[in-house]
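INPUT
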Amino acid sequence: MASRTSTELLHPDVGELRFTDVLAALSDPVRLAIVARLAEAESEAESEAASESGAGAAGGELACATFALPVSKSTQSGHFKVLREAGVIRQRDEGTRRLNRLRRDDLDARFPGLLDLAVPQGRAVIAGW
Amino acid sequence: MASRTSTELLHPDVGELRFTDVLAALSDPVRLAIVARLAEAESEAESEAASESGAGAAGGELACATFALPVSKSTQSGHFKVLREAGVIRQRDEGTRRLNRLRRDDLDARFPGLLDLAVPQGRAVIAGW
DNA sequence: AGCAGATGTTCGAGAACGCCGAACATGTTG
DNA sequence: CAACATGTTCGGCGTTCTCGAACATCTGCT
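OUTPUT
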């Protein structure tokens, strides 16, 4: 899985984030849906931490396979890669799964309001499926 | 001039604006620079109307040729077309020139805050030239 | 009217990118 | 170890982007 040869997952630093790359990453319905689902998982993790329950997406992380996307697996892989290299999500490997988390803090710091705009749009995409 | 065969310039209605198309339109440095210049022309026209002077970009409109862009003319034509069909700008023909204006009202109505985010980024692009 | 210049668009070719199925790599489980 | 599950990589195919060259339309000048 996850190409454990020697290459590590490259994530741009907060200061490295390029507006055009982030917009390009968010300008696709599938990727927008991914972002919306991650935002949902994020808030779920928050409320669960407050209520001390134990299920759900721990830490707001979701594996790639948990998204039921209407594209092939290889295309999904490409979409996650675009989001990661643009700095929209952060990925880490755990066992056979690759966990994804939204980089909300970094995005809010550099482009305040953008995620608040994109997430509802992503939800609308999902609603149309 | 502007292809006066029979096809009129098609502009999407405010309700027709698609988030993904707008983001894709804004995810290019050249187009971002165009938007920033139009925003500048817009505010110039505003202050001039207040002071009753007469020069500058009337009504916040700028002809395609007034942008000194580092791409070929045909590519510029394509960029303006993308912006228009995404609903970011409105174009109208006057004589031999095609005048462009930012659709700020429509964009602010559908995606509030997006232009406020994009315009400074476009200015940064111009500053790097 | 006629012709030259200015402003944009369209066309054709070559490069770059996106999506897919198939094959591969890695980790987990019985 | 074998079967399975999760993702990535590869090669092909179609779409999209960019450019120069040619074309179309309007304005001015003579």
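end of record. Residues 14-48+61-128 of chain B form a domain with the Arc Repressor Mutant, subunit A fold (CATH 1.10.10.10).
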